Amino acid sequence: MSSSQTPRLTRRGFALGMAGLSFTAACGNGVGNSNAATIDARVDATLNEMYSKYPNTIEIAEKASGMLVMPLVTEAGFVFGGSYGRGALRINGVTVDYYSAVSGSAGLQIGAQQYAHVLFFMTQDALNGFRRSSGWTAGADLEYVVSDQGDSLTADTNTLRSPVLAAVFGRAGLRVGATLEGIKYTRIIP
Q1: Phi and psi at residue 180, in whole multiples of 5°?
Q2: Which pLDDT value is given to residue 92?
Q3: Predicted pLDDT of residue 178
Q4: pTM for the full predicted model
């Protein structure tokens, strides 16, 4: 190939190349897909199910500064286990961010289950702390508003003073031994 035949980089070629690269990058990071709409639809369905099965959660939701709704968390294990789910943080009924929930475990375990859960941030400080963290982990200090026996616990004055409340319920009934301790929540772009 002679020097007169070597391709030259033109402004138009550069612009077209950058546009193609930008389009390819956008396809990989979720821009233009329907993942957010799918998560929001699942969040709506989960909230409707929770409010109908556990009416005490309506009052709690009305008093909460924000709610993290995880519509479907899948947990499985055979000696080593883990769980994963995606959901949305809602403030005043509007989705403001999307989150993933991840946990890992080791020990005597076998099986799989799917469940939903909702975290109610009862104070603005608790909500701000959650939103500012790069990876918030649920601790043993969570108060649960739905018990292992399927009963809704009353939202009394003492319960409502807890900074974070949790409702954990299964897709086909209540999750026995409900605990969210050790689950890490991280903001995502769906």
Answers
A1: -110, 5
A2: 95
A3: 56
A4: 0.73
